[in-house]
Write a structure and sequence with these properties.
- The complex is a heterodimer.
- By secondary structure, chain A is mainly β.
- Chain A has strands spanning 9-13, 18-23, 31-38, 45-50, 55-56, 61-64, 70-75, 84-92, 107-112.
- In chain A, the strands form two sheets. A five-stranded mixed β-sheet of chain A has the order 1-9-8-3-4, with no helix packed on it.
- Chain B has strands at 4-7, 10-13, 19-25, 30-38, 45-51, 57-58, 67-73, 76-81, 90-98, 106-107, 111-115.
- Classes of the chains: A mainly beta, B mainly beta.
- At the A-B interface, β4 of A face β4, β5, β9 and β10 of B.
């Protein structure tokens, strides 16, 4: 699976949009971009994933550049409960039969009141 | 959505004793389950992959005789930390793959193990 690079930490004001970048310059054509987050002392929580089109769900939006070498996770209206470590993961295949997720250090997002 | 339940959420044990952690898939069948370990301020590190009915595959550096994994059914995998030592204190997290196929991995809520 391709390697990802994320900023170590970011701050965001409550109520504003949080934009979390991720670089994955060596991504292959069959690799998807997944985002998970981990709130302190909990297991990772799935947020969103995509291949090449932008995606949106009730939690967030995922913007993938045309060359697929980078992406941005957008939390439209950050709340204090969004404070967590956010992991950008690139992996082969959309279905995870027997395939684990490889976690990097992630981005520690702090939402400030 | 699919749920993975992990038990216990916290456990404190004495050095030299063994601790069992359970990971259950509540509403789906999990052919494969993964066990991760997370030390403070670090990311999740895969320890082993367990497949129902067969021996687990351990990552390099993880002692299979110390971390016993059993995946006897499609809904339950257990991790037993044998002869625990203070350096085994960590956050242990399981993850399950839906046999029916899914787009995301499902994670348990984690177990905080403290060995005193």
């Amino acid at each position: 699976d391709a390697k990802t690079t994320q900023p170590t930490s970011m701050d965001c004001a409550e109520g504003r949009a949080a934009n979390l970048p991720c670089n994955h310059s060596t991504i292959s054509g069959n690799e998807y971009v997944y985002w998970y987050r981990q709130i302190h002392s909990q297991g990772p929580q799935y947020i969103i994933h995509g291949l090449k089109n932008n995606e949106t769900n009730e939690m967030a939006s995922l913007i993938i550049t045309e060359d697929r070498k980078s992406s941005t996770l957008i939390l439209p209206h950050a709340t204090l409960r969004d404070t967590a470590v956010y992991y950008c993961i690139v992996r082969v295949g959309q279905y995870n039969y027997g395939q684990n997720f490889v976690f990097g250090p992630g981005t520690r997002l702090s939402v400030l009141p | 959505g699919a749920v993975v339940s992990q038990h216990p959420s916290r456990v404190i044990c004495k050095s030299g004793t063994s601790v069992k952690i359970e990971c259950r898939s509540l509403d789906f069948q999990a052919t494969t389950m993964f066990w991760y370990r997370q030390f403070p301020k670090q990311s999740l590190m895969l320890m082993a992959t367990s497949n129902e009915g067969s021996k687990a595959t351990y990552e390099q550096g993880v002692e299979k005789d110390k971390f016993l994994i059993n995946h006897a059914s499609l809904t339950l995998s257990t991790l037993t930390v044998t002869s625990a030592h203070p350096e085994d204190s960590s956050f242990y997290i399981c993850s399950a793959a839906d046999r029916g196929g899914s787009t995301e991995a499902f994670f348990g809520q984690g177990t905080r193990l403290t060995v005193v």
